[in-house]
## 1
Amino acid sequence: MASNKPAPEAPSRFGSDFTTEYGSGTDTEFGTEFGTEGFGETDRAWEEWNPTEESVRPVRGRHRVAKQRNGLARSSTVLGVGVIAAVGAGGMATAQSKPPVSISLPDSIADNLPDAGSLPGVGALFSDESATDRAQAATAAAPLTSAGITTAEAEQGATDAGEALRARILQQAEQQQNAADAEARAAEEKAAAEKAAAEAKQKQDVAEAKAEAAKKKAEEEAKAKAEAERLAKLAASYAIPTSSYTITSTFGQAGSMWSSGYHTGLDFAAPTGTPIKAIHTGTIKSAGWSGSYGYRTVLELEDGTELWFCHQSSINVSVGQKVTTGETIGRVGATGNVTGPHLHLEVHTSSGTGIDPMTWLRDKGLTP
């Protein structure tokens, strides 16, 4: 252990009240620590104080600290209580302006004392930098805050919460933009699909319409072909009643020359003696004179239809005779109520109703 001389007793700076509260000046470490300036005492010479275990007495009163191993707790208490006393008395500036006092401690104590700069509230007294400078330097060096930084961000090296927040905002904005772009693309794809479907449906409708038209046309053509075949077949079994003729009067034509007031048949004007042929196979129902009709032959067909051949100059058949299509049954003349030689043809149904001979002949495939 180093040899230390007892320090001289220093007068008290705190007055009787302080002495009463904390003990006499000789029993405390505050007198030597801070001097007498600022406490109403005259300036005295500063001397080195080398306390020993025998010269340091336990602090009495409510601030007494239990003695610990190697004197560590007592030495720390000396420094901490001294700082508190200086601040409470308003003498911090004065204490900082005084030159430091050299203190020698036993090796067993000095070796175990902590660094003064690491003590709370004391390190600032041993630094050349001001508290403001240190605070500004710490503020500039440290991030704003680490609050809000996720573990993943911390592992990636992010230490600034502001930058982390900014990065998250940018990431969210990018995600929202990507979502909007995806939604826009989906809308465009949907619109394109709908447009394609509409175009396909339109094409399908056009194709179906064309197919329907083609089908209808084919049906009409087939029907027309069938009708042509029917008429051709009928034409083969039906014949025009005379030749070298001219149609002069038609069915229903009005005029005073006819007793009924209108023409009841179809007139084929032809020279007298022109052959009159059977239009279809049938049986001769009557043949002879018939008043205003002159010489008339009535041919009855299988369905009961009657064909009247009037104004003949001669008759070549008799009642009950079977005739075939194209067979000569008489000749054109001008007998009866006429103005000139012609064949007056009338068509009557099985019920006796007269119909248009032109229409009936056309229905049989003939064109007079």
## 2
Amino acid sequence: MSLGQMLLGFLEAQPRHGYDIKRLYDEHFGRDRALHYGQVYATLSRLLKNGHVVVEGVEAGGGPDRKRYAITDAGVTDLADWLAHPEDPQPYLQSTLYQKVVLAILTGRSAADVLDTQRAEHLRTMRELTRRKLAGDLADELICDHALFHLEADLRWLELTAARLDDLTARLTETPR
């Protein structure tokens, strides 16, 4: 996720104060982790420096002055380029799960126990996500579905690895000739 582009997206519809941007972010993306005000203002400062936003107005209040930020043409172009560019698929070729299985075998521990413990944790998390999905709105459903599909793929890998554990153990522990 690029926080800069997220903020530009909120500003494209209309100029906004940092407070409004944070509220929109938290409403749409911060369900599990809210955005800190410091992140908002540091990102706006960087966008301002790079010419992607301008300060459209300043309002005096009881505290610090409130700046209203607006997106520039360069910001619109940057946002459009980011939205049009596909994200790199993450193949996870050296996952922590695989590393734990190999290290368990190499250290004489039970790789089957590692797989069983991980399977139980995946299932627990999947139950939690399913509850959240059923109780939530469409955004929750989509977010939870994405996570559930990834966890299902991990579970398939755990099962496949468990089925191949004897072969993997033999290959990792055979002595070179």
